[in-house]
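Query form — protein C-type lectin domain-containing protein

QUESTION: What is the three-dimensional structure of this chain?
INPUT:
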Amino acid sequence: MNDHFSVRAPVESTMHFRLRVLLSVLFLAVATNCVDFCVKTPLYYIPRVSTDWIGAVEYYNRLNMRLAIVDSQEKHDNIVELIKASDVFVPNATSVWIGANDISTEGTFVWLATGQRANYTNWSVGNPNNHAGREHCAEIAYQSYTRWTWTWNDHKCDTKLNLICEF
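ANSWER: The C-alpha cells for C-type lectin domain-containing protein are given below.
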C-alpha cells in the first residue's frame, strides 16, 4: 500500500463517476441560473474526500481532473463561495488543497497542472513561510482562531485536507 495516498478509487467506473460529477455540476448551473458563468469558467468539484496533496493530484489525474487553479480574485471568490456551500465546510476551520506548490524551487509557487508561476496569490499574513522547512503545498484556509479568512497558507504536503478540483 502506498502510505502517502489512502484514497481508493470508487467501485464505480471512472467514466460513470465523471458523468455523475458533470451532471451534478450542470444541474447546479441550471438550478442557480449560472449557465453563462459555468461556460466561461472551469467546472469545480469538492468531493467528500480528505487526502494529502500528492494523493489528491494522483487521484484526480486518473479522472482527467486537476486541483483548482486560482489565478484571479474572481476565481478565488467563486471558489470560497463554493466551499462555504459544500458539505466540507466547517464554521470554525476549513482548509482545502489547491493546485499550487513550491516543491521544485522554494518560494516560487507554480500551478502543477500548467507549470505557470502563481502570479495571483492571496497569502495570509506571514505566509508562505515554509515552517520547519516542510511546507510546500498551498491551501485555502478559514480558521477563526488564527484570523485566516479564506486566505492561502503553505502547508505540509502530507497533511490530509479536503480539496477542490476542476475539469
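ADDITIONAL NOTE: Helices lie at 14-31, 35-40, 53-62, 73-85.
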